[in-house]
Structure formats: C-alpha cells, structure tokens
Amino acid sequence: MAAYFFIVTAYYLITYFIFKRSVFQLIFGLEIQTNRWAYILLKAALIGAIPFVLTYLHSILILTLLFLLLILISLIIGLWKKKSLWQLLAQATVVKSEQSPYRKRYLVGTLLCVLIPVFIQTIKEYNFFLNEGAWISNSRMSMPVSFPAKQKFIQAINRHKQDPVEYIFRLFEENDVVILCERLHPEQTQWHFFSQIILNDRFATKIGNVFTELGNAYYQKELEEYMNTKFCTMEDLKKATARIARESSGPWAFWTNTNWHDFLLNLHEYNLAKDSSHKINLFFSDSTMNWQNTHDKKQWDIARYSNRDSIMANTIIAKYNELLYSNVERKKMLVIMNTRHAFKGFIFPIQPNVSDYLSEHLPSKMANILINGTTQLLLPMKGGLWDEAALEIGDEWAVDYNECVLGNIFFDLFPIPLTKNLRYKDVFSGMIYYKHPKDWRESHGYEYILDSFKDTLLYRLAIMGYDDTRFVDLYEKNIREERPVILIKLFNFCFLVIHYIISIFLLINVVVLFILSFGNKAMNNES
Known about the structure:
This protein folds into two domains: 2-131 and 488-526, no CATH class; 163-482, Rossmann fold (3-Layer(aba) Sandwich). Helix content is 53%, strand content 12%. It has 22 helices and 13 strands. The strands form four sheets. The protein has a seven-stranded mixed sheet with strand order 7-6-8-5-9-11-10, sandwiched between helices. It has a two-stranded antiparallel ribbon with strand order 1-2. A hairpin with a 3-residue loop joins strand 3 (128-131) and strand 4. The longest helix is centred in the C-terminal third of the chain and has 41 residues, at 486-526. The chain is globular, with a radius of gyration of 29 Å. It starts with a helix and ends with a helix. The model is unreliable at 1-6 and 120-144 (pLDDT under 50).
C-alpha cells in the first residue's frame, strides 16, 4: 500500500509539473483549461489522501468499498457526461489539443505499459493454488512489501534471533511469570510449540506450573482427578479427556478445538510416568460462569459480558500467592492467554487486560511474549514484513524486543486509534516466530466429543438463544477436521483483490479518456 501511494503521488506530481497534465491526457491530446488546481487537489484527495487515512486506520474493507464506488461512479459519469469524475467535481473544462492527435497505437501501448508490470509483479510476488475449489491462497505473503524494508527486518532478526525454547527458559531465570500470547484459538501448530516447552523434564523440574485461559475454573477438581487417574483402557482415557476438553469453554456451550484436547491427553500421559514432585500442574483460570447455575439467557449474558480479564487475573494471582508462601519448590508459572488478554500497557476501552493486572501485581517479575499471529482484524503483522523475512530466515526463532531494534516499530495488532503511541516493546517483552501462516492449520473435533453430552449441549444452546443444531449433528459423527487456516486465506485473497482494484482504478483514466477522444474525434469529423 505504501508503495502504491508513493507511486501515485510521484506520478501526478511529475506529470503535472512537467506536462501540466497527466500522461494519459498527453497521449490523447486533452488539455485542462479551467480550475486546474481544484482538479489536481480533488484527484489527490480521492485517490491519495483519503485512501491513505483509511489504510492508516486499518479500515481495509472500507478502503475496498471506496475504490469500488469510485470505479463505478467514474464509469457511469464517463458514459453519461463524457467527463471523468475529477473533471466533473472540479468543474474543469477539458478540450482537444491539436498538438498531439489521438492514435490507436498510443492507447494500446499505454494499456500494455500498465498491464505488463502488474502481471509481472503479480506472478513474482504471488503463488496461487486452489484449495478444495473454494479459496485462493497466497503461499508467500499477504501483500506486497518493499524490498528495502524486508532486508532491514532480515538483518535485525539475524542479528538478534535466539532459539525459541531456550529464550523462554532464559526469561524464567529473571521472571516468576511468563505469558505466551496465543494466536487464533483453533490454530494447531502453536500448541506443538507450547508442548515443546511444557512437556519437558527441564520445565517440570524448574517451573512445573501452567495456567491457561482455556478451562473453566469450576472444573479444576475434575481436572486434577483426571490428571491423577490411571485409566484401564485407551477408550476410557479418550472419553475422560473429551469430558475435560469440552468443558473448557468459559461462557460458551462447549469447546471443539482439537489442539486443546490433544494437549490435555499428552500432558496426562507425561504426568503418568512422573512422581508427584515432578508432575506438571495445570490450572484453569476462567471462572466467569458456572453452567450448573445458569438457567436463562439473562444469566448467560451477565456471565458473557463480565470482566473476564479481572476474574482470570485474580485467579492466577491467588494461586501465585499461594505458591509463593507455601513450602513447595516450584513457584514459577507459565500462562497462556489468547491475543488481547496478553497485551500489556494497552488499555482496552472496557477493561485492562490480564497482562496489565499481573504486571501491576508483579512489576518486575513478569514477561509476556507474542507468538506470531495476525492483527485483531486478521491482517498480517506489519503488512507481511515478518512473514516475508521468515521465508528467508526460517520460521522458528525468537527476538527480545528490548534488545532488537524491531521492538521500536509501531504496534499494529489492534486498530491504530487505540494504540497509535505504542511500540511493540511497550506491549510485549519479545516475540517468538513459530511457523509461517502458510503452514498454519486449524482443527476441530475429537473422539467422544458428544459422548453422553448431546442433551446437555442442546440445553445450553437453548439458553444462549442458538437454535441451529446442524453442527451438533456434525460433531456427533466424531469427525476430526483439519485444514489450512481459512480466515488467513480469505484475507490473503482480499489483499489480492485490493491489488487488482488499484490497478483497475488506475486504468479508469484510459477508459474515460478513450471515450472522450472518440467523442471529440466524432465532433471534429462533424464540423
């Protein structure tokens, strides 16, 4: 986007000051006689300033609609008034000049000059393939990035990159609590990384405690019973794991993500072989809602819109204080929170985040780490620069924002109006890059997910006011569905659409002036 606005601005400045008209107008021999500055300013505002502001605010969908609207209006006005939108708004008079008569080859040459670079750039920057006949995916990056900026990212990352697992253990040498910022809940590969850290004898010996946003604290007792039970058969273990996994939903009816179910199962198997002093303790933090005491939608709404961050933080702080003043050796804890809950120093309009509460309670003993993900609007971080750099560096590394210059770049994981003065190092201690978005996978479903639970689920859905039961029938079949992250693909596709909309938009000048030239030619012939 930045490159586009630079090119457009440079194009209009150069052509105006050199030719006093655009290249297209020069080719067709058209000349603006009145209101020249109004014409230029309106054109600059509508295709330069306004889109720039919209992009700065991350309103990509509004930007897309703006371009579509301008294209539609320009075509209608061109056919109806025989003027471009800019000429009509500026009330400019455009006349035919005899100095540069229209020739068909000029139009063809101009079209080729615009279309060929666009085609080459597209082939170079995008690799397309169809997935299940529905989504076009971009396997390289989410949008074009400037080569110099990408090289700066690569140089800074190579200078400061660390092994991700070692980086976490290094943080625990100085901190009692380390928070990991989970990306999209259903994404599978991030939990492979979490398991590398947690299902580890080194972690079990030195830290030993894990808190997750997932999990209803009302079921903590059932969780501990599950972790301490040696099941007779694998079927019994899977049924028990499914019961715990589906009750990890907080205010939602049940939890369907495969990654959480698999983690519980693997943690149970890890703990089974350890004595009590080396078992890993897992704690649920979300106690906003007890389904057993919820009987209507009003009660559900109260629980749903409660201050979850405060409740989860208080649950974690209470356990931390209990460990701190007890005689147990392992007093540190790893906390896994999703997206905004892990932001520090970013005050959400309704409430502070879990990281803010923990940072206030432990001002010098907490670190929070970003796992590479997307913005709240599911756009790529820094316009795809991190992802593009990872294609050359590799996709498993960590950087500390207090050591790496990239910590000084502006924070863009939430809409800019709320975070315009924040940099990444103000919000996170560092970042772990684990897997490029093209390798992300989302997975739903697991065995026995609705085992003796269907009636309970239907009752909860009725309380929530949700009467569509099609997905209930789907999960009753015990289908485990894994696929590339569809939302990422969708937004990659949107960026591709925007890329072409911009190109089409620039061609509107050719189309309108083509109409104008034929109109003027016909008038000259008549005269």
